[in-house]
Specification:
By secondary structure, this protein is an alpha/beta fold. The protein has two domains: 30 residues; 88 residues, Nucleic acid-binding proteins (OB fold (Dihydrolipoamide Acetyltransferase, E2P), Beta Barrel), CATH 2.40.50.140. The protein is 34% helix and 35% strand. Strands 2-3-4-6-5 form a five-stranded mixed barrel. α2 packs across α3. The relative contact order is 0.16.
Length: 131
């Protein structure tokens, strides 16, 4: 009888271990998104994105929030790893940027993280220059 209890305890412990491993690998632990390799869900001009957010915040969030988007526009400001397109789209990069691209027309890809109502600007992170 004692041996049977040990076998049952070992079987239950094994099941618990397997279940925990499955949860960790299959559900809880996920690789970080690689925005640079993801296909853009939307391609639009910076002015279009900004106008959409100013018109209807909730509809724009449904369309763009947490999605990879490709945006084109004129670089109006560069500061360290931040770039501003058309004075309304703030883009965060993982590296320092050269200030000699101010005034250039560029296309970039990044993840939309929402609209800052106070500053009236759309924010993108994990950005990469495409062109």
């Amino acid at each position: 009888m004692n041996r049977k209890k040990v076998q049952w305890t070992a079987a239950i412990a094994l099941l618990l271990f397997c279940g925990a491993a499955y949860l960790y690998n299959g559900v809880l632990y996920k690789e970080a998104r690689n925005i640079e390799k993801e296909e853009a869900a939307h391609r639009l001009a910076a002015s279009q994105l900004l106008d959409a957010y100013k018109r209807d915040l909730s509809a724009s969030d449904q369309s763009y929030l947490n999605k990879t988007i490709e945006v084109s526009g004129k670089v109006t400001q560069v500061s360290d790893s931040l770039l501003t397109l058309d004075s309304g789209i703030t883009c965060t990069f993982g590296k320092m940027l050269s200030e000699n691209i101010v005034g250039a027309k560029v296309t970039l890809k990044g993840r939309c993280i929402g609209f800052d109502e106070l500053m009236e600007e759309v924010k993108l992170d994990q950005c990469t220059l495409i062109q």
